[in-house]
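Continuing the batch. This is chain 6 of the set; chains 1 through 5 are on the previous pages. Same settings as before, nothing changed between runs. Recording input and output for traceability.
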Amino acid sequence: MKKTRPTVPEEMNACFAAAYNSGNIERIANLFERGAITVTIEGRSLTGEKEVRTDHINLLGLDSKMTSVNQFAIRFENIALLRAGWYIDTVNKDGKPISINGSSSEVVRQRQDGTWFYIIDHPFGNTI
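Output for chain 6:
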């Protein structure tokens, strides 16, 4: 079984991809702090559990597989800045295989139990 809660910030992106690939919105939602912010492809900031969850439910609708590779993690005490390259393999409306990719920027925070959670998730942080 893959790890579901990262214990070092460098594991965040692989844990997110595993949660995404499971198709389970609860696994994705459990990686985010309650008041976390995520940024949409249009550049809108969504704040709070309900909005972040809805945005990720829409992402799960792609019926695809994701790979996310950590490019760096810069840590200061219990906060870290991350960058990752992500890749989604899916099919277009004609049923032809396509790949979508991007580079994300995230800020994560460590909790008292040693696990890490997203506080800011910008999936298109290197492309806007």
